[in-house]
Automatic annotation (TrEMBL):
Organism: Dacryopinax primogenitus (strain DJM 731) (Brown rot fungus)
Protein name: Trm112
Record note on quaternary structure: Interacts with TRM9.
GO molecular function list: protein heterodimerization activity
Family: Belongs to the TRM112 family.
GO BP terms in the entry: rRNA (guanine-N7)-methylation; tRNA methylation
PANTHER family per UniProt: MULTIFUNCTIONAL METHYLTRANSFERASE SUBUNIT TRM112-LIKE PROTEIN (PTHR12773:SF0), UPF0315 PROTEIN-RELATED (PTHR12773)
InterPro entries recorded: Trm112, Trm112-like
């Protein structure tokens, strides 16, 4: 299942695509989006926060209709229970089941069927 925690790690590896121009992949043609309850773990979320590409996460969440995250990543006392619960929801409970992700540089399409993204490239598309 494509959760936003996974999406925040994905980029295009087609020939000619390099970071940061190939990140983040953009969702298009999303025809099925599901919210599934997941176990809450505040410690896990706090450890994940420094690893997140925050702007990409916020922009992607907005693209999928969720505006609950602040534009800037909170620090210190601003990382409270309410914020962590919102982050938990966006990262772990929002699932893209059907649709596609596209590279912002080369527009390569990565289809998502039954929650599984097809990240395979044809031989002529592989970076060398």
């Amino acid at each position: 299942m494509v959760k936003l925690i996974t999406h925040n790690l994905l980029c295009c590896h087609a020939r000619g695509c390099n970071y940061p121009d190939n990140f983040p992949l953009t969702f298009k043609d999303v025809t099925q989006l599901e919210v599934r309850e997941a176990d809450y773990n505040a410690e896990f979320l706090q450890k994940m926060m420094p690893r997140l590409e925050w702007k990409a996460l916020v922009d992607t969440a907005k693209e999928l209709g969720d505006t609950s995250l602040p534009a800037e990543m909170p620090e210190g006392d601003a990382v409270d229970e309410e914020f962590l619960r919102r982050l938990h929801h966006v990262l772990l409970e929002v699932h893209v089941e059907e649709g596609a992700m596209y590279c912002p540089k080369c527009e390569h399409k990565y289809p998502i069927l039954q929650g599984i993204p097809n990240m395979l490239l044809a031989e002529h598309e592989i970076s060398r």
